[in-house]
């Protein structure tokens, strides 16, 4: 089955930048959409952004203009560049990949935006 390994994250001051990456392994030929979701304490998991194999993206209004999602199909990796970070961006960020049959999730990586 598909496995997702996330990297990046950490602590950053408001207005700063962070980059997350997520590498897929396994039956990667079956992967369709990839992307990121996030979950803040006491809140439901929510969409950050997704990207198709062709590069079409869909992003939450709260991150548009600040976050950029890209995809390297040759490396089976997606990258989330996060700029102008705000305290409300603090959450555990989860990588996601879909196939025809199901969605797969990474283990999550913590992002903390605080002064």
Which descriptors would you attach to this protein?
115 residues; mainly beta; seven-stranded mixed beta sheet; four-stranded antiparallel beta sheet; 11 strands; globular
Number of strands: 11
Global geometry:
globular
Radius of gyration, in angstroms, nearest whole number: 13 Å
Task: State which percent range the strand residues make up.
Answer: over 45%
The pLDDT mean sits at 95
Distance between the termini: 40 Å
Poorly predicted ranges (pLDDT <50, ≥5 residues)? none
Describe the fold and architecture.
This protein has 115 residues and is mostly beta strands. 0% of the residues lie in helices and 52% in strands. The chain contains no helices and eleven strands. It has strands at 3-8, 10-12, 18-25, 34-39, 46-51, 57-59, 67-72, 77-82, 91-98, 103-105, 109-113. The strands form two sheets. Strands 2, 4, 5, 6, 9, 10 and 11 form a seven-stranded mixed β-sheet that branches. Strands 1-3-8-7 form a four-stranded antiparallel β-sheet, with no helix packed on it. β5 and β6 form a beta hairpin. The mean pLDDT is 95.
């Amino acid at each position: 089955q598909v496995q997702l390994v996330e990297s990046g994250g950490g602590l950053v001051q408001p207005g700063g930048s962070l980059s997350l990456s997520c590498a897929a392994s396994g039956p990667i030929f079956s992967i369709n959409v990839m992307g990121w979701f996030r979950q803040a304490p006491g809140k439901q998991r929510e969409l950050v952004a997704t990207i198709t194999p062709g590069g079409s993206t869909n992003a939450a209004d709260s991150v548009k203009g600040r976050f950029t999602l890209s995809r390297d199909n040759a490396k089976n990796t997606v990258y989330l560049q996060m700029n102008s970070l705000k305290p409300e961006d603090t959450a555990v960020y989860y990588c996601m990949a879909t196939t025809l049959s199901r969605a797969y999730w990474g283990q999550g990586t913590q992002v903390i935006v605080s002064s």
